[in-house]
Amino acid sequence: MAGRLARKLALFVQRHRTGLLVGSCAGAFSVQVLHHVFPEQTYRKLHQAWSKGEPASLSETLRKTFQDVLRDAGVRDPRKYSAFAAFGFHPVGAGLPWLPAGARIGVPAHFDSTADAPAGISDRVILINGEAVRGDGSPGRALRESLVLSPAAQRFAIGREVARLQGGGPVLLAAVAPAGLALTCLCGVAVKQLLGLYAGPVLLRGLANAAVLTVGAAGYCLVSDAVGQWLDYRWDRRAASLSTDYATGGVEFYNKLLARNVALRGLMGRKGEEMFAPSGNLFPSSWFRLQRAPYTARRDSIVGLLKEQKA
């Protein structure tokens, strides 16, 4: 019974493989861009900051900063971009500006903080592992100081998200999976044709398929990570290229981000040592993948660009 069902399934796949491949590629692409098509209903609800049971709102200062960044970035239609108050330590964004829903960018509440007037997260209770962080201790003081950014660093952080969405970053990342799937299937067909396995035993075709799938999965991980890191550097440099002020802010942004991670490493104990390197970079989530470019390398890239601008 099982053998008969397997043969019928193999015959069905053989007859409709083109349609199945197209449908699978479309599905893989759609899953990754769905929340960018409806950012208001998906991404914003997930990242919205709340205060006293109500959605938090951006201050007028941050709204003005956001509009200034849009102008500096040369956005043709600022109405396609909207900002909201988000929780977390750095800006987040989703959406495609050329679609009707536009783009949504979340600006953290602690961007209202200044050295003279702390506000947002840096002036509230910070919980680590369920315990409040003492502000008078060295790690707690370092964490709070790392959350205070200059206006230049704030503009760079927001500008990077604007550049990412403006340049179609979500589409580029989403295209890797369907491209890898299509290439793997085509390679599988080519290998079986070259080796003459279509006329041979089903077992050999199954082993060939398994080998091609393994190589395809490994290739997808490598290409996906390489594209992700390339895009990290690309959006950083695009934002830093807007002006020397943005480049200087980018260096400060990553220095503060690294300092924050070092402080969290000390405050979170063993879990912090597993998440953060002594330099402040993030450890990879798995031993064979490095999805994001290291923060130190991204900072050094902007330092190099800043030297070019000053030369």
TrEMBL record:
Leader peptide range in chain numbering: none
Keyword annotations of the record: Membrane, Transmembrane, Transmembrane helix
Superkingdom field: Eukaryota
Transmembrane segments: 171-195, 207-228
InterPro entries: TMEM177
Single GO cellular component term: membrane
Known role: Plays a role in the early steps of cytochrome c oxidase subunit II (MT-CO2/COX2) maturation and is required for the stabilization of COX20 and the newly synthesized MT-CO2/COX2 protein.
Family stated for the protein in its record: Belongs to the TMEM177 family.
Protein name per UniProt: Transmembrane protein 177
Top-level taxonomy: Eukaryota, Metazoa, Chordata, Craniata, Vertebrata
